[in-house]
């Protein structure tokens, strides 16, 4: 595995939720040309609020309560491989694993099904349910695996590397949710509803957001630099982001600003309420105010989880490559893993390079990545099942000897 943070495999993300006054670029397939763009007018999500201390305590002890399922549900990818179990008594042993609060339920479901195949295997996933705590316990050698609902923090990866001399193996095990609050919803870029821009590429976003510009090109400072014409051409691009470190911020940094193995660096800004180093960049402490900031500033662009789009703003279609197909964060595009800012959950294990993983942990991973394991994801109706290509990438990472 590559040192420090690596780009996650592509998966499903979010939906554009706009007020009647706003528009949302959307298509189930790609939005390659302006003629094909469709505008939706749909109500924003209900506002969400931070978890209380009491809710956090409950979640750590019991796992986060499951959200109300979306009416739409994805079908399993028919190309997912069937799981072929080994003889029942071929595996045995007691194992200790950890999980973040939003993966407590799903991890227990997977393990229950796995232990039916191997009755001599017992895997405990006990509270406290917190991915960051689990990652630290993995570094200490106290856990055999950790189910985490986001990419590991760079400090967690570095801490593991310092302890063992190599990175942990992080394998995607499910898609994130579509737009469920608190369940790894997909990430979207939003602009003011009056903004004429409908779609952007990762290279354009990187040129606007970063100082490193790992994807090449000149720095973006005006909306004209991003393709706007007329009265918008000379208007400044106002960046609204989330103050590092934050899961949303790290995900965008890895997926959009990072390229060619190089980590991206944000344009300098300041926290809300203070004097910014760059007057066009504003950092919020959390994701909750991003949509509101963009609604109130006609020249703003920001990134947010789709569960937090609670104002009449426009959600952009995105393309990974300049000139490539642009996908809107519709349910179909997220569930099919076409939308490029879909998110993933991960199983993290200690696998020494050049050696096989512990046989029980390896077989558990193979089960999770199988059609049967991903059916468990679909049955829960919170997260989205992996596509066959994503599962195949996970199996390859499991088999590869660096």
Automatic annotation (TrEMBL):
Chain ranges passing through the membrane: none
Keyword Transmembrane helix: no
Region feature Disordered, mapped onto this chain: 44-71, 260-279
Keywords, in A-Z order: Signal
UniProt-listed InterPro entries: PBP_domain (IPR024370), Phosphate_ABC_transporter (IPR050811)
Biased composition (Polar residues): 48-57
Domain annotation PBP: ranges: 100-370
Keyword Nuclease: no
Pfam families: PBP_like_2 (PF12849)
Leader peptide range in chain numbering: 1-21
The protein's name: Phosphate ABC transporter substrate-binding protein, PhoT family
Organism name: Streptomyces antnestii
